[in-house]
Amino acid sequence: MSESIDDVRALETTWTTGRIIEKDHPTPTTVRLRMHVEDRRRHRPGQHYLIRLRAPDDYTAQRSYSIASDEDDPLVEFLIERLPDGEVSEFLADVAEVGDVLEMRGPIGRWFTWDTTTPALCLVGGTGVVPAVAMARAARRLGRSSLLRVVAVGRSPEELAYAEELARAGATLAWTRTDTGERPAGPPTVDELTPLLTGTELAFVCGSARFAAFAEGLLLDCGVQPGAIRVERFGPSG
């Protein structure tokens, strides 16, 4: 029996706990956490969790982080950018240790999710790559990689987490500060993006507010209808 909307909303407001099982730093400014979540529900690619920190005086701070793992992964994976003065991200990157238990709520989100059957393109930048990684992993598991095209933008290969995994999956990688010889340094162009959009019905954009504005404008310039673009943006508050 499928869950009703009311059931899903009720579960989205229920807090649980997650234990850090693995922790590493894929790039100098990010931390990857793989967690065992109590009473875990299966998630859809594109969803996120709230992670809440609680101080001894009961002060709390929480932030939303997209899920990178496939739903069949026994652990839930997050990639978090360590932001200067980021109350939650600094703690997770510098203080939290394997074995620590954190308060969590999720998975959350319905609009920015991929159903794994609709042909789609992801245009993502920086740590906005995370939901695209979840979508690509789901597509690979289901044998539907042809339905998903990913364009990931970063400053350099060393600064973009999951770059090697995405390259193996056939993603287009654009480096804004590094000329690799395959293409000049710079963001994607209309000429590069237009052929990749052929046959797609949805476009997902994820990244900083500045990147999201650029990416949405680029998709519109390529002829994508506004109603076919789904945008998730974030700012320096995590």
UniProtKB/TrEMBL annotation:
Pfam families per the UniProt record, alphabetical: FAD_binding_6
Record has GTP-binding as a keyword: no
Keyword terms, alphabetized: 2Fe-2S, Iron, Iron-sulfur, Metal-binding
Domain FAD-binding FR-type: 13-114
GO molecular function: 2 iron, 2 sulfur cluster binding; oxidoreductase activity
Cofactor(s) this protein cannot do without: FAD
UniProt-recorded name of the protein: Ferredoxin-NADP reductase
